[in-house]
Amino acid sequence: MAENQPLDIEEIVRDSFNEDEAEHLTGKLSQLEPEEIAIALEAMPVEQRVSTWLSLHPDDQIAALTYMRVDARDNIFKQLDEAQLRSLVEGMEVDDLIELLDELPQRIYDYACSRLDESQRRWLDTALAYDEDQCGRYADHDMLIINKNAKVRDAIRLFRQLAEDAEYHDALFVVDRTGRYAGLVHATQLLGLASHLPIETVIDNEAPVVEGEMELDQGSDIVSRSGYTALAVVDDEGKLLGRLSIGEALENVRRSLESQFMHTAGLDEEEDLFAPVFYSARRRALWLGVNLITAFLAANTIGLFEATLAEIVALAVLMPIVASMGGIAGSQTLTLIIRGLALEQITPQTHMTLLRKALGVAGLNGLLWGLVIAVLTYVWFDNWVICIVIGLAVIINIVVSAFAGVIIPIWMKKVNIDPALAGSVVLTAITDMTGFFVFLGLGSLLLLT
Amino acid sequence: MAENQPLDIEEIVRDSFNEDEAEHLTGKLSQLEPEEIAIALEAMPVEQRVSTWLSLHPDDQIAALTYMRVDARDNIFKQLDEAQLRSLVEGMEVDDLIELLDELPQRIYDYACSRLDESQRRWLDTALAYDEDQCGRYADHDMLIINKNAKVRDAIRLFRQLAEDAEYHDALFVVDRTGRYAGLVHATQLLGLASHLPIETVIDNEAPVVEGEMELDQGSDIVSRSGYTALAVVDDEGKLLGRLSIGEALENVRRSLESQFMHTAGLDEEEDLFAPVFYSARRRALWLGVNLITAFLAANTIGLFEATLAEIVALAVLMPIVASMGGIAGSQTLTLIIRGLALEQITPQTHMTLLRKALGVAGLNGLLWGLVIAVLTYVWFDNWVICIVIGLAVIINIVVSAFAGVIIPIWMKKVNIDPALAGSVVLTAITDMTGFFVFLGLGSLLLLT
């Protein structure tokens, strides 16, 4: 049980800061899985990351890069000179090249392509004919393929050639003479079979198939739910393009959920913890700018009531409470609907049910918190009218926000805007404007007369 | 390729509303994987969900329940009568029972336990000795176990007994006479071996091992990175408790990331889209209440400056802009740090680097947006002093918020508070109070003299 040490990133990062530990660190990293190395490298500032990465075995260098987030590995690439980049791509397989495609300088990519043989280049061309989010692009060629007419002994011979560190290879992929996928042969099914039998007797053709044009998320769901360790990816003629393994499916599921989480704050999933300050500042600036528009819209709404505010300052003091309660109620509904959309659980059949439910929940909470806030306001300002104004405003804003929290993401999904990214900005604009308008509007009506 | 139909939840939900389609629907569901049935059931309002679920084959009923989110399945349980509950638990294995433990009424649980045989009860006791978030509780007994002294022919016999729908069973788990785990035997390694050989020659003892006391998240990471389809879970004496498969690891990773996403809005990962209105309202009320405290703290800060606001209404109009820019900057930093903490990439060694970076990014964006807002304010209000006040306030609030965005989650993790859940509330309190205080404070100083 050589490597049964839980990953200790803290220790690895500490060692990376200490030159005396360099050898020790390299030894320790060589025991880890490439995914673990990638996670540890991401946890280091760029300087330590590059020197640690350079100390890795070339195979680990490439493997770790393919598992790293785009920005994090890009910050390694930027520190490499021409010769280092060239020698790096010399060791790359086609699937590594596809993964790293966008970050390699054009001339390095061309150099890498020029070194591919005929069959590898065909693979590259086939993969690149699919979009960036399609399964066809990422179909993995690390698989065992056998002809439909083969015998059990051929299958056994193939399995016995497996490298020791091969992952998720408990089945062979069967093709017919034209390269069309015809099913799987499981190692367990071959045990105890006479070697002269045709494999046709044990072909499993019940396994689902992933189509090259499917979105990667959908393909990953199919693999992860199938119970198989890898499924065939086929083109529109049924020809075997490669496989999608459970390992990759898990990685995709992870990335996709992580990006949903990051998008809620306007961040990219590929963001590097240790990106250079100027680079990060530029990326964040955009999101602040978008939100500034929202903030000015809210301020503009308040501006409509300058005269009222000049007379009743208490309204200025209380107005953030109305906006904030609407914001919270809205974002709870929004988040629930975004998850439902991601799981494809929001269907037209239930739109009205969901809306009714959201409005019911918001109505109850509006009444409860409207009342609480009204009472607290009365205690604070000793003014019955303000207390009625804020109570009503809170109820209305919570209900409007819940309505928006259902409608906005469903509409965005329909017109292909990512609700995790854009939903909260639009929702905040609505809850702020509604909150200020209703509260100050009611205040003007009831308090100025 | 019988079941190669991508899951069409929309169609299934539509059918569930139409009694004429009942038979068709049952047929279609029986073709799906239990995970897919669970997702589809969650997408139905409770009435349709219960009637659809009742139409399933008893095995699928149990399997689907174990994959459903707690609230969603709880809403099925609530509709079942005593007899239905009893007959349901009669078909349950120990691992189903462990999964559903918390939602079953005590008398039904007792009834289920009374039907277990000696060895199953021992399994249940062992599992329940571990905490709810520990691997030991969920170790799966659906595995093939062989004695270390067995021969190749015994191993082959075991593999040949595998049920057709068995998942992730490409290896046997080897134990010694005392029940201690000793390694794996892969089906592929047995191919072509003489049947009288001892299996000891092909035991893989390089595979990592999951300890029963490890957190489920950590165990799942180990399995998912190992490249194995299932790993042994052992107790503190090295005895085999069960296995953790890649399928369960993937499910755990999914749940854990989903809960992180839901927590940012104060929601629970187990939340049912179609929970009863009253139930949901009660759950959401708490979060609104917590946020109300924040809102009142902000209002209280504004209240300190009533006199200033009465004189310069423009400040009331502009103050949400300052708070909002701080809020956005802070939540971007917070989100990035929360992801880093979840991946265990935030180590003490780099705290200062992260803080410096966050302050650098905030400084640059503070300067940029402070200037932009100052210019826009000048255009709007034609007042140099207000324009300087808001520019400075924005810079200060963005920098303070970024600082808080780094410090708060790291501190919360340290004292075992979930930063995804509590981080945004505390951060909002800080950004609002700082924003209002700095802006109105500067305004009082510079505008009232």
TrEMBL record, chains A, B:
User: Which Pfam families does its entry note?
Assistant: CBS (PF00571), MgtE (PF01769), MgtE_N (PF03448)
> Which superkingdom?
Bacteria
- Please state the protein's primary subcellular location: membrane
Where does the record say this protein resides?
Membrane
Q: Give TM segment ranges.
A: 285-305, 312-338, 358-381, 388-412, 424-448
In Swiss-Prot or TrEMBL terms, this protein is called Magnesium transporter
* GO cellular component term of the entry, any: membrane
Which key words tag this protein in UniProt? CBS domain, Magnesium, Membrane, Transmembrane, Transmembrane helix, Transport
The UniProt GO MF terms for this protein read: magnesium ion transmembrane transporter activity
Q: Does the keyword Repeat apply?
A: no
Give the similarity note.
Belongs to the SLC41A transporter family.
